[in-house]
Design goal:
Chain lengths: 333, 477
Amino acid sequence: MELFDLPLIWAFIIGFGIIMYVLMDGFDLGVGILFPFAPNEEARDTMMNTVAPIWDGNETWLVLGGAGLLAAFPLVYSIFLPALYLGVFLLLAGLIFRGVAFEFRFKARTSRYLWNWAFAGGSTLASFAQGAVVGAYIQGFETENGVYVGSALDWLTPFTVLTGLGMLAGYALLGSTWLILKTEGRLQAWAYRITLPLLAGVLVVFAIISVWTPFVDDLVRNRWFSNLSVIWLLPMLTLLCAWQIFRSVRNRSEGMPFVATMGLFITTYLGLVVSRWPYVVPPDYTLWEAASAYESQLFLLLGLLFVIPIVLVYTAWTYWVFRGKVRAGEGYH
Amino acid sequence: MELDPLILSRIQFAFVVSFHAIFPVFTIGLAAFIAVLEGLAYKTENPVWVKLSAFWTKVFAVVFGMGVVSGIVMSFQFGTNWSNFAQASANFLGPILSYEVITAFFLEAAFLGVLLFGRQKVPPGLHLFAAIMVATGTFISSFWILSANSWMQTPAGYELREGVIHVVSWSDAIFNPSFPYRFLHMALASFLTGGFVVAGVSAWYLLRGREVEANRKALSMCLWLLLFIAPAQAVVGDFHGLNTLEHQPMKVAAMEGNWETSRDVPLLLFALPDQINQINRFEIGIPSLASMILTHEWDGEVPGLNEVPQDEQPPVALVFWSFRIMVGLGLLMIAFAVTGLLLRAGGRLWRNTWYLQGLRFMSIAPFIAVLTGWFVTETGRAPWLIYGVMTHAEGLTPSLTGGMALFTLIGYIVVYGLVFSAGIYYLMRVLYVGLEDRDEGEHEAERPARPLSAAHVPFEIGDDENETANTATQGGH
């Protein structure tokens, strides 16, 4: 007996995992994207130290996304990954380089510039690839009988390049507002200075994507221009968040720009979800068609209900341990 | 020539897994060692324990970092190259891998930050707790991943509906027939790896007269540990072999180089298996011993490779020789552990240069043993991806072309090659600098103080002039 609509519950859980990942790894990837433009080497040290103790935990949400997708929606997993084969490779290669840069950069002297490039290049590559994945998802996939039948580079189109750039700008904005929160003095002043141009960049790309998307896909167009007018609430909220970022940067507020940027991401994300609902492998499969066996979804759900609250508690605790401003020259031990 | 995506994907998976596996197998043992050191430091307040823990935590940080980044690749490999397999097995493997993430990876990642960066930020008790949580996380992780791998070797608790696995008993599936043996074998292998690396590095320091008190303590602890687990590993290995004989007889046949099912089978010490002609050349063996070991009877029947057609046999020479290297190294480890006891009894442990030199070289032995052991178990099940259920060919991604598989294979080799060279090189630097307190003030005066990461050792040789003078001469600081 299937008592609950488990695929629906799982769609919420996976959706929650994805937005957790985007918000948390987003700002530390953003720090990497901004790395080459930092005022000086000392600022780079501080920037890296704002994320050093937590980036690993942030990235674990991505691993959970991969494993959770396999567990709950294997069809999505086994269509997306082959379809995005080369993009996934670029994403992983980027994450590898930036990950090891955390360990090696601080000890390098003459070769330090190489690790700077590994961190910045890896972060940029990984962020772009993630944006392209979002674009590819909007575009849809060519499938037959639950198997991807397109070719290796179908995902790479002008549209996905644009969504890739959008993600770069968005993560950079998360990064700069994070730096406003975590730093002070000259570095913070720099972060304040770049935040509004980044916001402008994000809004421009978002606007182009919004105009373009209805032409990419009929389903999205129909959804947007149907009588479901509540959908227009989300872009309104997005603009409200953007306004809030603008205002709080002007007022030299330290926490609000980061919070409002997270709000911007959440509303945009909800807009994307609503536009595509309930298709998880557009244009062919809904979340119910892509779901794994009922007993498998149930088995994992029971554990998840116990464990995820605990995970959230100790993750919050580690953020608490490393709270406050990170100062130049301040070591953690 | 047409590029074969199947062969290339298999090479790619083998490469990525082999590369990844050597890191966790080391960090599991090392994390437990660090937790013990932190516990001793907390209890006795003897600064030697803090010094040892701080040093080995640096090593841990580098190795763990490489393990994490190579591990992220793993969670996407099933989908990119083996999507048919992913889809067919998702009902079991998906939840198991997800449980690994939520019960182990988050625990490791969150508390690793506190272990590495939090010594001054949290009370000592919480710092110890973080060390224990990291060690626990590595252990929980190996539980789930070995359950998943064992299930692919000896699937249980499932039924097939339209080519898709459906789990009918979670306990049967998780605790499948080969799981207990595999898990114990791997856990002991992790402790052997951690033990021999710490012993080898400590021996090297002792040979150079560096930080004698601390390194003697570390070496002594490791030798006691190895004395118990090296022989225990042989016993567990034997049980594991019997289990494999029951569930995967063709793997055992390849391990023994036994072509025909027969009685009184000799234990081959040397042979050159010739798979084309289905015979061995240059056999040297001990009569009946294989029968004795495998069946515990001198004339017990041992299955031969001729029970299946040639194209269903595993690559015999690879399995045969990997197995011999693993067992040979295992015996060498036991010999070293026992010799340590004898030298200790005679009070000659710290003076015996030969033994300490030998330990130095033994620090790579467990890595080779783990990799060869893994070759035995993974190639030994060929051509099966899920034993008896799905072959490698059936599990492959349908849209995958040879060119794409080759491109990413080369890509991973290049990326891992760069990362691995940097990692090993840096690890050598950390080991070279050692446990000694360095005079930070003098060094940092020239430039604005650098914030620290987990390990504070310069990347390049010769950047720090007083470093060599600092480390080479002193015993106790």
